[in-house]
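Archive transcription. Copying these from loose printouts into the bound notebook so they stop getting lost. Printout 1 of 2:
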Amino acid sequence: MATTTTTTTITITITITLLLFCFITTTMSFPPSPPIQCNNTICLLSNAYGIFNTRNPCPVPSVLYPSSEQDLLAAVAMATKSNLKIKLVSSFSHTIPKFSCPNPTSNALLISTSKYSTNIEINPSQRTVTADAGVGLRALIDRVEAAGMSLVAAPYWEGVSIGGLVSTGSHGSSWWGNGGAVHDHVVGMRLVVPAGRSEGYAKVVTVVAGDPLFDAARVSLGMIAAISKVTLSLEPRFKRSITFSFQNDSSFEDDFMDLAKKHEFADISWFPSQKQAIYRIDDRVPMSTPGEGVNDFIGFQSTATLTSTAVRASEKAAEKAKSVKGKCTLASMELSAKKLVGFGLKNNNILFTGYPVVGYQGKMQTSGSCLYSSSLDLLSSCAWDPRIKGLVFYETTAIFSPQKFRDFIQDVKKLRDMNPDNFCGIDNYNGMLIRFVKRSTAYLGQPEDSVVVDFNYFRADDAMTPRLSEDVWEEVEQMAFFKHGARPHWAKNRKVAFLGVQEKYPFMSSFIAARKKIDPLGVFYSPWSEEILMGHVTSKDDGCALEGQCVCSEDRHCSPSNGYFCKPGLVYQEARVCRYSSTAIE
């Protein structure tokens, strides 16, 4: 009776919370906090979530804020002359691995591009735009659209800088033209690189398509130079039409190639526990097509702080009670509610009234309305703002060859069918988003036309707290990266996703060679970025598997005191996962 009462209470709480979450959004939002916070003795760097893929803080002994290329050049020269290690960060800082964290010693310098964000120059005859590295994506798009042109590719989240999104391989979804990755629309870059004394310890280098360093510079992870300016190709302004088609999930792993080939900006959202797949039918339409639609994705809208904290509290209550049913209630109701509001699509910039939703490219390709506000309180914000007790989650992003993607989905379905309720934990975080990225010549870009699978799931407040259905997500993660050889998205993922990453990028050796040539002194070196790029295996501490810092091989890598032991996977039996049981021997 007590268990039934607890489950009923959680269900009622989640129902009320969900109604708040889906229908109480605000137009006023508390803007995100700057990623660099300083006191009288030291500065600390974080990301927009308030937590990297490790929980270790990132102390920064010194920070500079250049506002021009000349300032940036002077900063790199000073650091090179003084034998300092450099990292750069934007005003957004959405990277989950610690690529932006400099060497954790006193001989390090962090350069923020938050004030280097003014210049946007459009060349109509060449159909290009050149922007300072710190320019925000929304500012760039608005300027380009006002000039009667469009940027073809963009990530779905607009809270990124131009330098940051190019250097981390950010993307939308398309196998058409130059593809969905923004770096494949780059035609030139200006870099500030270390130099010798005779050249003033730093110099500006321009790279364009065909130059030996171009393919190393486009996805460089902040490891070879300071990006100063980026030049992107444009097209004449165009409109898009979006319709979401709701299907059962019986055959989407066989349908995806046809969908991607037929529709320029197609994607698929898969909700495994609901056995639903949502096909995004997304194409260009003539400029004369009526419509002033806007993509204001509901997950990126401003959310009342009360709602965000209530959702988090409901999640934690379900975790504590080990109530997958509680999470399933949330998943089912959330999907139904999001359907009613078109997932944030708006036909007239106010309401969703039905499909198709037609609008200009600049209003349809990306979103992030929770970023913008003049509000001076914390009554509403992005739902994951670390200053409130809102959403905290992992983000796993695996990039597959098309053939391996199909096999992966079939394995996940086998695991799902053993107990669909175990998959509710991602379905209340928008399920699995499946996108398409074209083959790139960038050394750290995708070496083939690829399928990107992205999913979020609950992260505990404490690193040593195990999670509900933890073994399921660890098995899915290991299926992706180990069994099916997926490549990790550079700006996302837990540490285990990067194990063996060097073998997955055929031009990794070319990137490393270019890095040594451009930065022979290792000015842009840090142990954090080195650990990710090289896919290093570090020592295994107690509880290391709980947050993806290792793959368990002993029970102590899980949480035996809480009943979580290291076990084989259920479908991928070579996997080693932390599974809850009442005893170590089943």
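Printout 2 of 2:
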Amino acid sequence: MSLLKTAFVWCLWLGLLELSYGARIRHYNFDVENMIKKPDCLEHVVMGINGQFPGPTITAQVGDTLAIALTNKLSTEGTVIHWHGIRQIDTPWADGTAAISQCAINPGETFHYRFKVDRPGTYFYHGHYGMQRAAGLYGSLIVNLPENQTEPFHYDGEFNLLLSDWWHTSSHEQEVGLSSAPMRWIGEPQSLLINGRGQFNCSLAAKYVNTTLPQCNFKGGEECAPQILHVEPKKTYRIRIASTTSLASLNLAISNHKLIVVETDGNYVHPFAVDDIDIYSGETYSILLTTDQDPNKNYWLSIGVRGRKPNTTQALTILNYKTISASVFPTSPPPVTPLWNDFERSKAFTKQIISKMGTPQPPKISHQKLLLLNTQNKIGDFTKWAINNVSLTLPVTPYLGSLKFKLKNTFDRKPPPRTYPIDYDIFKNPVNPNTTTGNGVYVFQLNEVVDVILQNANQLNGNGSEIHPWHLHGHDFWVLGYGEGKFKPGVDENKFNLTRAPLRNTAVIFPYGWTALRFKADNPGVWAFHCHIEPHLHMGMGVIFAEGVEKIGRVPPQALTCGATARFANNGH
């Protein structure tokens, strides 16, 4: 048989094998570009995809392969897209992290992402270069079960809510301010958006709340008009929620309706009922809502700011019972967002999240432990965020290429500190306010079990400690517990939840507290672990993990066309 015929038969066999398992290759062409939109009824430049903001929703089934040709049509800057919550097993080069898993995609270039989605759940995607997420580069990614399988909960319909915050200053201006001496903080967002829509200069609930804003009066077709959720009475709906906020922690509530939490970060959890949910940047949820209220009324869905003193009005939309017109406003005020600094309420909600019975539980022991202290520091007159007094700066050459090809002098080979001084007082301003920059890597042996203790502390000046949601690429982790004050090694481990620990990819540390995580380093690659608040990451609040890099197969040359790896890409390695 000729070589051509052999290749044809081989491809045909692979195609039949793929179809036999019901999997598909889903092709997308994404053009990243700037465009003029009105996200909150005021005109601004927005970064979007294919003329859309937010970007197109990707819907797939477990086992599908996503083949996404991403073309950078920005005229002056690179770009990449991170597929948030997708573990990228066997495809670490497709994680979409500039300077970590790949080179930035230059203007005019096309990069081909290709990866498998292996688990059902609610995910999203977003820019991971500079502060492009703050510019609007994000969209939803939904992975359904195969058609012959059913979810462990019943629902009659489904909605998808992508939550974000919006500024009237550009992301470039924000970056420059954060990198200035003295630092110019970005301030609170001007608007909150639900599926890219908000209202800055009017209020949907002006007649019910104390506001100087006029009542919104949409005539139809306005791109900032809210997307209304149309429901039938006596039905159950799944509402998928993802937060891609740049800064804001949020609270979601629906008037008069209980919410049943069933999924977090692509993992099933033990169902529990609440009146509202807190959702931090990088987190996703699925909630079930039963339409058991008066069908002759409509109801508010509200989004408000938590964790920071808010200077941003609620985002609102309407839950419309189809038995009446969607134009009929609710008869009562929107739900009141809980006090921004009621952290005990936030902790009570978070601690209700435990794994669904049958979820894999954490190994009983770990092989390594990192104690990571989050602090605000100075380098000269520049303000930075640091981990164990090292503020992350990314190298020119992507870590993945440097480690795979054993390159020298591309980043600091000295590992970052694994802990912090035992006498550090987390309740006081830093005795030594100065920090250093670094780009070292925590390297783990393949399949090692690693504990990470995230420790919060007092801010640089004055009294206060911020919320930080931390996101791990390439893995899920078990959340073993939360604690108050300073973590006590040898004591606080006795409080760990080793029986019903939830699996997540994003976890919050509360002010002056600690959060304990455990994960298995079983996914060969180089992975970011960082605060998901965009300006904090920009100011250095992250670390880099690597494991099993020697097990990584071929990396597409186009992923490594910059820095010291360019010669390998040009040679076709």
